[in-house]
Amino acid sequence: MKRSKWLIVLVCLGLCLSTGLGTGPADAQDTVDAESKVGTLERLWGEAAQIRDVKALDSIFDDSLVYVHIDGRLLTKAQVLADTKEADAVDIVVQSSIARAHGNTVIVSGVLQLKGVQRGKPYLRHGRFIDTWVYEEGHWLCVASMTTAMQS
Amino acid sequence: MNERSARLPLPARFLGLMKLSLMNLVLMNLGLMKTIAVVLVITWATTAMLPGQQINSDSGVAAKIRDLEYARFDAQHRKDNLALDAMFDNALVWVEPNGAQLTKADYLANLRKPGMNVVEIGPESITVHAHGTTAVVVGIYRERGVKDGQAYALRARFMDTWVFKNGRWLCIAAAATSSVS
């Protein structure tokens, strides 16, 4: 009888721990995995932006995304997607980036180069970006992104 | 305000209490059915607070983060490195409005640099977006002061990310841009 009780207690405790604590990265390996997964998503984001794949971007961004463009505009997810569709072709090169996990949050910071033509004039800009990713319902989603124009 | 519903962090003390309750149950030698019922209730109560679950409007998190932001600006103004040290995670990524990136140590050292005098700094607007144990803040702040003998004034858009770590909220990333369109 006593053994049965212990068994039930252990099963329930295991259930609590497996469902409750398994939702976000908890140990060193999870941290490495999270940083690697988000790094891959960042590359996908760059590729999707380059070819204006709005569907791919839609799956990368959280619905409540807050986005600060290099020109200082504060945009919603819908505005970013519309902007991507309508904008002139832009060559985006991520020159450096580093991901850092904090539990179920990953911060990616780096430098990117934007090269394109706007209103007939070519431009080359460098920006320092910080992206915030959150692990939600089994997926990593970008919830915030900000690029600051780098002054030379 | 675009405050999203948020998830509550699982308090360590709750787990402790749960363990104690389970131990007590066994020690008190209750009946098997009673044990099952109580354990199931505890299981349900714990899973109801899972980090992955959305709980309706968490204005508490938004209010807490807003208070922390005001405290951060105040500490910047007072050059209170001790207060800022407590608010910033050691892995803080800080981006200045000119695009320069600083570590936590760089930022704290810069604040105390001779020749730097912030006369006024404060937020004009603050919006908190809560995602459980993560909160993103966007807003606009104004700053004026004297740097190396030159007066300056700045209006900048900022974005900060806070995470709930070891029982407290810590700022892990902060960026600003002087382009506000």
Write a concise keyword list for the protein shown above.
A: 152 residues, alpha+beta, six-stranded mixed beta sheet, elongated, B: 181 residues, 6 strands, 37% helix
Would you write up a description of this structure?
The complex is a heterodimer of chains A (152) and B (181). Chain A has helices at 2-20, 28-50, 54-60, 77-86; strands at 61-68, 74-75, 90-102, 105-118, 121-136, 139-149. Chain A is elongated, with a radius of gyration of 20 Å. Chain A is of the alpha+beta class and 152 residues long. Chain A contains 4 helices and 6 strands, in the order αααββαββββ. Chain A has a 6-stranded mixed beta sheet with strand order 2-1-6-5-4-3. Chain B has 181 residues and is of the alpha+beta class. Chain B contains 5 helices and 6 strands; from the N terminus they run ααααββαββββ. Chain B has helices spanning 12-27, 32-47, 59-78, 81-87, 104-111; strands at residues 88-95, 101-102, 116-131, 134-147, 150-165, 168-177. The longest helix of chain B is centred in the middle third of the chain and has 20 residues, at 59-78.
A few lines on this structure:
The complex is a heterodimer of chains A (152) and B (181). By secondary structure, chain A is of the alpha+beta class.
